[in-house]
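Re: weekly structure request thread

Next one in the queue (717 aa):
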Amino acid sequence: MNKFNNKKIIPRYSIYAWILTLACVAVIAKALYIMTVRHDFWMAVAERQKRDSMFVRPTRGNILSCDGELMASSLPEFKLYMDFRALHDSNNDSLWMAKRDSVCMMLNRIFPEKSKQQFMADLERGRHKLARHWPIWTKRVNYNIYTEVRELPVFRMNPNKCGFHVEEFNARQRPYGSLAGRTVGEMFGAKDTARCGLELSYDSILRGTNGITHRRKVLNKFLSIMDTPPIDGADIVTTIDVGIQDLAERSVIKELKEINADVGVAIVMEVATGDVKAIVNMEKCVDGEYREIKNHAVSDLLEPGSVFKPASILVALDDGVCDTTMMVETGNGVWDMYGRKMKDHNWTHGGYGQISLPRTLEVSSNVGVSRIIDQFYHNDPERFVRGIYRLGLADNLHIPLVGSTPAHIRMPKKNGRGQYINWSKTTLPWMSIGYETQVPPISTLTFYNAIANGGKMMRPRFVKSVVKNGETVMEFPPVVQREQIAKPSTIKTMQTILTHVVSQGLGRKAGSESFLVAGKTGTAQISQGRGGYHAGVTHYLVSFAGFFPADKPLYSCIVCIQKRGLPASGGGMSGPVFKEIAEGIMAKYIKLDVADARDSASVLVPDVKNGNLTAADFVLNALGFKPVLNFNFDIQGNPVWGVAEDSNNSRVMLNRTPLYRYNQIPNVVGMGARDAVYLVESRGVKVKMEGRGKVVEQSLEPGRIIKKGDVMRLKLE
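Done, posted below.
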């Protein structure tokens, strides 16, 4: 007999089952209600409790000059926003309405480009929308401006109560402005990604590794929890010398303005190492000013003209087909070369007649050089071109700059019947004088540098090392491109010939009274594509390439200028630029012992300019002078600005002076050019300078509110 009374138990279980079923239905219904009707509400609650993981950008590495000067560095920049919903939820709407007038007035003082009324109308639109991320100012601002805005009424409250918040970026700053701008490189500001130059080539080293963080609400406060910390980028130490770069840029721009040229290029290379100490790429813009737009020094594939002639003669000498005693007839400066007229630059004055092989380079005789090369290589042009290849002119130099291209030097080719398919009877004569071939300036200079270096060709070097936390983590030693481009005796002969080009040839204007210079002039017509050489106004490339001092070479240099119309002279236009650069560099090597000028009654005190007192104190201490400091160092390491005074020719006093607000014109009178430009341009004002030395006059009044598009002219003496 069954112990259980099914009639009583089954109904009880049924009741329990129905209760559980109804509970399940209620749970499911509630879940569906939350997932549909209340979806947005609960998603907002979840958002307030936990934020998704976010990338934390590392600090981008610095780009340094060869002597440790900052050429590009990362500084924080901010975008300013208002969270009007947070303002509303904290019941601070009434406070905002009471303070908005003064807030908008102060915002107008900080950002004069936008009126008080415009700020008020714009912020009210955001408040009516209860926007969570409404921009106060559309552009990024630096730390100084951010702190000014943060101190305004309402904004100084807790972000959860006032809604004021920021988005931080690592902005790229260049203390030396546009100096070597195309080589150092640029960044896409909005994306914080590299655009060109060394910034792009070494981006993987400079940018570092992103970190990961998330935000969680704990006890009604948001805490940032770091999942993976970011790894900051490393610094790269370049070969660029700031002083030489500045000298080269000023020299090139001065000549470009004087002759109204279109493009100016200058490269300075250290002979022993191949280190590029300066690289200039100036181009005339639509407003008449010269700026770096393209890296012409490594990308311009133009016919080099007469600076190519030493390569042609060097091949002939190294092959042993001729020597320096050879004489060549140039006639009256015009010579028929297989139906085309080869002309010397002085053909209207009767030419040079019979001259020696070295003289063909001294006077840059087209007829002389082309006749020598044609005489020995006409039946075997492949041998000549192989000789040019042997000199390294066609080598891929692996330049770490976007747009760099190796030289294009044509090798003769034959078909199955033994006929040349890319070569004519006139190709060799014209190639020998720098036509029918394309060589960028950097390749030409590398060749001349090899001559100066006794025949050893060094690959151009732009970066010396990678540094992290003060320690060198990677080095880029000098690279020998070719151990020997020609016999040492041949190289020695060419060094002598190039020295004579300057001392007694067409390169006189590149010479110096203080030291020997060796080099070669060049003037070439620039082909205008399908239009040829005579399409409209004739364009010219005028050049000078050489090295100094010729008896013990330290530096090589090339100057190339592109201009329209005559006159056009490599020696007369590029030569003086070369001279100015060479003499400026060599002046650094004239070292006098200051003790020689000291006597028992004299006290030598350096002349200290106004400006960055932190830097002045460092230099004075390094020189053995102990200045009197009337200021405290900034604990953040920021520059301290002020004036330097000479106390009875015995001590230097460094006095801090208050700076004007960030939106006001600073007083830079008495400062050096470097500090003055940095201080003014960091405020968004463009600078134009005249002269050298200290600032004696500024065009904009100190303390004046900065306006958009302001340009300050500085007079230096």
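The first helix runs from residue 6 to 36. The chain has four domains: 6-37, 54-238, 242-589, 606-716.
Next request, please.
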